[in-house]
Amino acid sequence: MNPNDLPPELTHETPAHALLAAVREVAQGPLAAVVESIDRTGYYPRAELQQLAALGAMSAHLDGDAGPGDFGLSIRAMAEASRVCGATGFMMWCQAVCGLYMQQSGNPALNGDALMAHVRGDTLGGTALSNPMKSYAQIESLLLKATPVEGGYLVNGSLPWVSNLGPDHACGAIAAVVNSDEHIGREVMFLLRCDAPGVELRECPSFSAMEGTGTYALRLKDHFIGADDVIADAAKPFIARIRAAFVMLQCGMAVGVTQGAIDSIWEVEAQLGHVNQFLEDRPDALQAELDALTARVMKLAETPYNASVEFFIDVLDARAHGAELSLRAAQSALLHQGARGYLMSSAVQRRVRESHFVAIVTPAIKHLRKEIARLSAEVMPA
What we know:
This protein is of the alpha+beta class. The protein is built from 13 helices and eight strands. Strands 1, 2, 3, 4, 5, 6, 7 and 8 form an eight-stranded mixed beta sheet that branches. Strand 2 (144-149) and strand 3 form a beta hairpin. The longest helix is centred in the last third of the chain and has 29 residues, at 309-337. It starts with 14 loop residues before the first helix and ends with a helix.
């Protein structure tokens, strides 16, 4: 599905403008009404996510009958929601990349009706690729192991936390293919259905700012995956093809959280501008930097499957800049708002915690910098 496939009632303007206007209406209406519950009590916004899915907000990047998907539009839609609720923006990313895995798999069982159900929001899902991405960056080892059996694999292992999950959800996952517990040099990527035999969801400890994100620990015990479940076998070439798109989509969270923080600064400018003028990172300067970053991301989004190392370095750098800018903007918003921003009920207080998440979610700033250094050394060896 892409913006040209939107329902006629949403096309009074260009499809992209209509989609963003509709997402903004949901974000500032139904989503804003439950954001405190998401943050404080762990409310999982299933209905709101399904509203956004029905609009095409989490599938605009997918290819459709009308042509290639629009990654820039997906990023902007995610930013509109993240401006109000960073947790929801994160779950939109989870849903978006799960759809990306399904479509790019080329597996008929994961396309067709299955993909359309995901696009509509009838099914929701996430991505269990934090551990594999760290493994490929030589930060940690793969935690899931797949043993070949007749017709597929038996998968065992545990993942500490995976988001946008529930009993009827699914996620993309990667397991090392092993023979007698020895990694035989390839990995298999598959769609893991949470209600399948051998799959257990376990509650996680309470999270800061991410309590309502449907985050669970996953435990797999002799979980069978067959041909209908396979996204890629072997996984590494597939990840190499979609890795830039995977990381690039996360920029929507950073842009939205940053914009929300800037909004909070302007809220108090009339009352406190006479003293806030002495603070660093003033709203106009932050806005100019954010606008430049957004323009940069939109340019990168024009070629999401560019496989060059130089392009991927640019994507990683933009993602790191977004994380760092969200941290600065959220802290600045707290300083500009003063005591009122220190109330637990304050949107500023929530965004400070959300900005921390943008900075540590895989790939975290340290992971990004490590990969940029490694890849830069490959491109320009000493």
